[in-house]
Amino acid sequence: MLHTAGSDSRQFYRVMNDAKLASQWRMVAFGLQWHGKSLPPEGAPLGGWELTTARYVALIEGIIKGWKLKRPVLLGSSMAGQICLEMALRWGERLGGVIASVFVPEWVHGLMAPQSPRERQREVWWEYSQAGFGAF
From residue 132, how far is each of 3, 8, 103, 110 by CA, in Å? Predict the structure, then answer.
């Protein structure tokens, strides 16, 4: 599970703790550097790290290989949805599939349904309000 720009693996807390899903899937999520819970390295200039496609692909490949994942299904939206599509292009049959949703980050709050539970709206707002400079 790949989180959106500026957020972290907390986005998947409820999904990963769903008993029915957990009984059928091995679910893993990780946080990107300079996003969400990750502080910039000491002395690094703010906005001095760039998440390129090549860097993102290499990171995902490293996670897949390091955790010995066999034909993983990648899940992501927005920025993460875009990289899911890139991974499908590059890895093809080595993936079990992708679940990708691509949208403009500025629409995050506006995309929530008006009837969304207030608690979930607050969680989304809180996660995105923590994005570091240049991350979101």
Answer: 15, 12, 20, 21
Query: What's the distance, CA 22 to chain centroid?
Result: 19
121 by DSSP, 3-state: which?
A: helix
Angle between helices 79-91 and 53-66 (to 10 degrees): 70
In the predicted model, what is the mean pLDDT of residues 63-73?
Answer: 95
What is the H or E stretch that residue 100 is in? strand 97-101
pTM: 0.72
The answer to whether 34 and 60 are in contact (CB under 8 A) is: no
Residue type, 134: G
Residue 126: count of CB within 10 angstroms of its CB: 11
